[in-house]
Specification:
The structure is a single chain. By secondary structure, the chain is an alpha+beta fold. Helix content is 52%, strand content 13%. The strands form 2 sheets. Strands 1-3-2 form a 3-stranded antiparallel beta sheet. Strands 4-5 form a two-stranded antiparallel sheet.
């Protein structure tokens, strides 16, 4: 371990000292924890939801959580929406995230059509239709074709 001397403003010293007392730790331990957390946060790559979803075409929140890069599902959903990702909540409480470009193609080629999933030639569009149908996000209306719920 390396020993360094650090000068900090009096007000910060008081705040750190209060935290140390409240948590029953030494001032040194609090400073080391704070620096460790700061360094680890700076090292984390910024997670761009839209880029991640674009690579896949579509995915679920539960699948993104499995990657270990999602700390806060609520923040991820908010970020996804702000980045233009189409987000649909499933009846089971999961979310389906769809790349906006894929969604646009889906709207043009599948929605309002009467195509059976097997008749959708594009694999991604067919898989998306099957996922959305399986999760009760779209349904087949006999008169109007595939419709969002």
């Amino acid at each position: 371990m390396v020993t360094i001397k650090v000068s900090i403003p009096d007000e910060l010293h008081k705040k750190l000292k209060h935290i140390a007392i409240d948590e029953g730790k030494t001032l040194k331990a609090i400073v080391i924890e704070a620096l460790t957390k700061y360094v680890s946060e700076r090292r984390k790559p910024k997670f761009n939801v839209r880029d991640a979803v674009a690579k896949l075409g579509f995915t679920t929140l539960s699948e993104l959580i499995k990657t270990g890069m999602v700390e806060s599902p609520e923040e991820l959903i908010s970020k996804a929406i702000s980045e233009g990702v189409r987000v649909f909540e499933t009846p089971q409480g999961d979310y389906v995230l769809v790349d906006p470009d894929l969604w646009h193609r889906f709207e043009k080629e599948v929605l309002n059509s009467h195509k059976d999933p097997d008749e959708v030639n594009d694999d991604k569009l067919r898989s998306l239709l099957e996922m959305l149908h399986r999760n009760a996000i779209v349904y087949l209306d006999l008169e109007d074709g595939w419709r969002p719920v």
